[in-house]
Amino acid sequence: TCFQYVQPIFEKADLMIGNLELTLSNKGKYSGYPMFRTPDAFAYALKEAGFDLLTTCNNHSNDGFLYGLEHTIDVLDSLQIRHTGTFKNQIEKDSLYPLIVEKKVDGTTFRLAFINYTYGTNGIPTPKPAVVNLIDEASILADIQKAKRAKPDMIIAITHWGNEYWLDEHKSQQSITKLMWENGVDLVVGAHPHVIEPIKTDTFWSADSSKHSQKLVAYSLGNFISNQYRKNTDIGL
Q1: How much is the average pLDDT of 97-118?
Q2: How many helices (H) and strands (E) does the chain have?
Q3: CA-wise closest residue to 42 among 67, 24, 57
């Protein structure tokens, strides 16, 4: 019901991407905050609404423990919704990450590399053998280098970070963005604060100053659909 009014807008997008901040379940024991266990029907609604790609790495990735993490992946796979950020094991991550997506637009095929990280998982340890990508400088640098080997047109980082309800980004978000930009990420899109935070750009020149590229970060897009009532949580980008 929520999506029917925006589905026409989604359908105009070349690539519709969302942050899936919950775990799916078919066990009937559903729950809301603070541990999100959501009926599989929600994933079917996302598919019907037109989502092409979902990031699964956020502070609620472990809410359903190992079953929830694995089942979420299975359901998305069954619906042929691309996803990244959480994995059943390290072997799966090594073969599927960074996520490479090719999209043909107006006769031109664009090759995009997606990386996805979270600051944490609300104190719930990631159950073995599963993998949840945490923000870690060494891991980020290694992932960027692997992404570059796929020769993408753009490297896009989707990050779950920052302080909830802050209207300005934290200095840690700035430092992570700088690290990503300097090492080849073109676009950084943030979530978690539940409010809109600044969008900023910078220009990076090649070593010989012969060419330059524009980099962009949206520190937080705010909420899209939620039942939050705190000030500034009722809007999103």
Answers
A1: 96
A2: 6, 13
A3: 24
